[in-house]
């Protein structure tokens, strides 16, 4: 038994996989605010999109950590017996 597929089947499978990868890269590209979503990705551009996606996710993680820290700080200053929250204080801590 050979582990190789017939050439025609391998080509159609590869094209299908390439199309799937291209579609997924385009979807990622559309989520990144600083990349042009209309540009059809080449292999080099796909690599750039993946790198930019990783970088963007790291940036978002840092922002979430920062906001979580600010929220924790805010919650530490709130009197649990007082139901009146100072909305301006919350906004200033979260920089909204």
Automatic annotation (TrEMBL):
One of its GO terms (molecular function) is protein dimerization activity. Keywords: Growth regulation, Nucleus, Transcription, Transcription regulation. Its main location: nucleus. GO terms for cellular component: nucleus. The keyword Nucleotide-binding does not apply. It is found in: Nucleus. The keyword Nucleus applies. One of its GO terms (biological process) is regulation of growth. It holds the Pfam family bHLH_ILI. InterPro entries: HLH_DNA-bd_sf (IPR036638), PRE (IPR044293). PANTHER family: TRANSCRIPTION FACTOR PRE, TRANSCRIPTION FACTOR PRE5. This is BHLH domain-containing protein.
């Amino acid at each position: 038994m050979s582990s190789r597929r017939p050439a025609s089947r391998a080509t159609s499978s590869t094209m299908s996989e390439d199309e799937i990868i291209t579609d997924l890269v385009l979807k990622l590209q559309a989520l990144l605010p600083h990349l042009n979503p209309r540009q059809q990705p080449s292999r080099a551009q796909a690599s750039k999109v993946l790198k930019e996606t990783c970088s963007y996710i790291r940036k978002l993680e840092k922002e979430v950590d920062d906001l979580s820290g600010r929220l924790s700080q805010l919650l530490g200053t709130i009197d649990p017996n007082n139901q009146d929250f100072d909305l301006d204080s919350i906004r200033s801590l979260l920089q909204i």
